[in-house]
Write a structure and sequence with these properties.
There is one protein chain. The chain has about 250 residues and is an alpha/beta fold. It has a single domain, classed as NAD(P)-binding Rossmann-like Domain (Rossmann fold), CATH 3.40.50. The chain has a 7-stranded parallel beta sheet with strand order 3-2-1-4-5-6-7, sandwiched between helices. Helix 1 runs parallel beside helix 2 and helix 1 packs across helix 8. It is globular and about 50 Å long.
Amino acid sequence: MILDQFKLDSRVALVTGASAGLGRAIAIGLAEAGADVACHGNSRSPEATCDAVTKTGRAAFAVTGDLADSTTPQKLIDDTLDRFGRIDILVNNAGTIRRAPAVDYSEADWAIVIQVNLSAVFRLSQLAGRQMIAQGKGKIVNIASLLSFQGGITVPAYAASKGGVAQLTKALSNEWAGKGINVNAIAPGYMRTDNTKALQQDETRNRQILERIPAGRWGEPSDLAGAAVFLSSPASDYVNGEVLTVDGGWMGR
């Protein structure tokens, strides 16, 4: 049955940035499809997401750490392996954004955005990839952005990092597809999350954004869950190096 190809029974997933927003929706979606989930949080506790996962009947485990710290990826992988014994799915969702004109952009803001959004994604993928290669299969889903394709305004580090995520996705896929590892990415459109709160509250910018989106609305975190389940499931076994836009039609406009 085709629907069986979307089931994640007996799979173990690690979702970074799972305390709220996109990561929380993805973690719950994976659990509803049958996966046990290690839910990562930084400044916000992932316990509420863990509670939502357990309500689906799946196991949940909270892992914490600041991805601005280069030692955190190893800790997250080790904690997940200690708790579940394996890792089948990695969703690199955690990210940060700092806004300022390029001429005023600080080295500190540049460094932290690149570290969290790109360097940590590589390190987590590298560490999880080793486990998945040994297992002979695995799924890595990176969260890219519309700014993987476009430059944006006053977010130079974010645009650079998300462009890097798209290219890293393809680079890892080229190396690992033949080893049974699917590496893909989702590029969300304008989603109703804390990261976009300033844009939502700006009456002019909010109107401009909605006028550009054919679907006529902001995306909700739940709009990403189905795409994440697809790219984490056997249904996507022949999908490699894809950056899937989930954007209400923005990129086609």
